[in-house]
Request: fold
Amino acid sequence: MKLIVPPLNISDDDGFDPEVDIFDRKVFGESLLNLIKNTDGELVLALDAPWGEGKSTFIKMWQGYLTQEGVSYIYFDAFENDYQQDAFLAISSQIYRLVDKGDKVSHKEFKEKAASALKVFGRASLRVGIKALTAVSLDETILEDAGSIGDASNEVSGLVDNYVANQLALAEEDRKSLQEFKKCLSSLSERMGGESPIVFIIDELDRCKPRFALSLIESIKHLFCVPNIIFLLVMNRSQIEEAVRCEYGAGVDATRYLQKFVSIWTTLPKPTGTFYSVPKKYLRDCLERMGYRAKTEAQREAVELMEELAIYYDLSLREIERSLTSFAIIQNVTNGDMSISHSLLSVFISIIKSTHPGVFRELSKNRITYEEVLEEVSLNKLKIDWWSDKPEGHPIRYLLKYYLGTDEEAEELLKKGKYININYGRDDRGNVIPRICSWLDEFKFGL
Reply:
């Protein structure tokens, strides 16, 4: 069994191949493109979903769909580019790369306009307090005293007048430079996009540095938001809102702040119904990619429990992958030769290691009671119909009580019936769960 879930192999023009689109998101992808095609004017969309919910996989399929539909797009991984200091330059360089290399006129024009716009930001970042030719700092004191203390002050006053005049001229020059840049960008996008607008996808915004993420969003709205270019920002909204508070203070209304820059918010649709639940479908797909085949009764019951717990905890796709890596370690270490009770416990422990690492540590040291586990990992409501007439209402709760409870509790439990093959001596009982945990502690595999 592979230890890591292999990445989906999605080529640049696959689109929503049924073999890959296991959540049936093609309809959503089509609707998203229809919205873009039928929208006139400027538009900034945001695709919001928690980390590990498959945003990037959807975007990869959607890129292929855009290619199939003949729609020009630019893909920009914000996380891979947050080493850059200037968000404007980072976005401009992506647009510049899309310009037809044979169109030397457009290349030259865009480069010149972008360079002029970039100089605006360079000037804006200069400190107001500069040193004049006389080496006198133009701070607030000098400005207030200008013109009030004789000839020396008259000289400073002249410098101030010249400085203000220059700043006014520069402000007008800057305004024209930015207008010329947006005009050039709009014209360029109209020529490159054809009948459909250019789609600019910015992915992984929630993973990059907060300041760079916000700088990207602000630059898009103020400088790149022109007709014929549609931006799609892929993010976890709550993470970006936290970045806003981090950058501008806890008192800022982060939700209202983002509303200034995003026109429409959208989310990935989820299949409905237990059988078609996202966790269950993704778990099955991952097991297949990892080459796992349940051959014994213990392994089949382990897979069924994993599906049940994935739904119960509503695991994210990333949590499923991490849980499966832990499960694979245990399977490979033991060569898959475990009793049903150990197999079921290995599933529970693999999931808890990903979702409740603190509880896992206590389990590994045998320092937690059955009642504490129920409370800490919210197992109180875990029940299943076919076990309703048996102790604890669920097989994993039955096993946890036996292995974590006192000797008296274990004996009382067995008096009610041995519903799972438990035949370990009393001294061994308290070591079973720590032993399973130790297999993961010994082979952490970066988890």
In short: The longest helix spans residues 150-193.
